[in-house]
Amino acid sequence: TLALARNGQRRLLTVTQPLTTLIPSGASVVLLNRVRYYSRPDDQGVLRLLRQVDGGASVLVGDIRQARFSYWDANGQAVTQPAYVRRVVVEVVMSDQGMHAVREISLRT
């Protein structure tokens, strides 16, 4: 197993350690990302929902009243242990219109 680093480019991975063996042509590469969803107020106190992928965060929805996260296993049962989570449901209530949006995020292991 080699450790690879991503420099922000979609198609460029850099080896972060010396190669000890040759990598055969056609070898597969698996890229694991650390993805984090969270809510946080901005400088004016407006609550926002953000998505962070491997360090860089971006605003998904601004001016929300509430964000709620629930975690589900492969059988559709609510769980609290991270090892069993296979799906995350994000519910957002917008501040100005009272709109309610739901998004499901499936996890691959």
Q: Can you summarize this structure?
A:
By secondary structure, the chain is mainly beta.
Give your account of this protein's structure.
The chain is mainly beta. It has one domain. Helix content is 0%, strand content 46%. It has strands at residues 4-6, 13-15, 35-41, 47-53, 56-61, 64-72, 87-94, 100-106. It is flat. The protein starts with a strand and ends with a strand. The mean pLDDT is 81.
Layout of helices and strands, plus pairs?
Blueprint: E1 4-6, E2 13-15, E3 35-41, E4 47-53, E5 56-61, E6 64-72, E7 87-94, E8 100-106
Antiparallel strand pairs: 1-2, 3-4, 4-5, 6-7, 7-8
List keywords for this structure.
three-stranded antiparallel β-sheet, 109 residues
